[in-house]
Amino acid sequence: QVQLVESGGGLVQAGDSLRVSCAASGRTFSAYAMGWFRQAPGKERDFVARISRSGASTYYTDSVKGRFTISRDNAKNTVYLQMNSLKPEDTAVYYCAASPQLADVTGPRLILATHYNYWGQGTQVTVSS
After folding, report:
1. Residue pLDDT, tens place only, 76-118
2. How far apart are CA 5 and CA 13, in angstroms?
3. Edge-to-edge, what's the strand order for the sheet holding 2-7?
4. Alpha carbons 129 and 11: distance in angstroms, whole number
5. DSSP class of 25
6. Res 26: pLDDT
7. Residue 82: how many CB atoms within 10 A of its CB?
8. Residue 55 region, left (φ>0) first, then alpha (ψ -120 to 50), else beta?
């Protein structure tokens, strides 16, 4: 079992930057690949980014490539999502999620919500135009 708590959301203007964090507690954090998803009102929960257990491999959905960066600090049991050049269409509740893995994953893997066992409660990010 692992518990996840997101923080850092807020209201920003288009073009601004924001970093959201996800603190994990419970079992060994480094045993989990971590993902960020987002859900806008009336829409499905969509994949944003994922990072492998060690942090060596990352993968992003096309709409955020070059603007968002996922990272993790295994010593602090925390995963981050740095969001730059924010757009109004980035407005959503952002969720972090954990997926137990035996080794690092690479490429377009762990991009479905069903691949993740544990979820945080979400943090709202609102980007005004």
Report:
1. 999 999 999 999 999 999 999 999 999 899 989 999 999 999 9
2. 24
3. 2-7, 18-26, 78-83, 68-73
4. 11
5. E
6. 78
7. 14
8. left
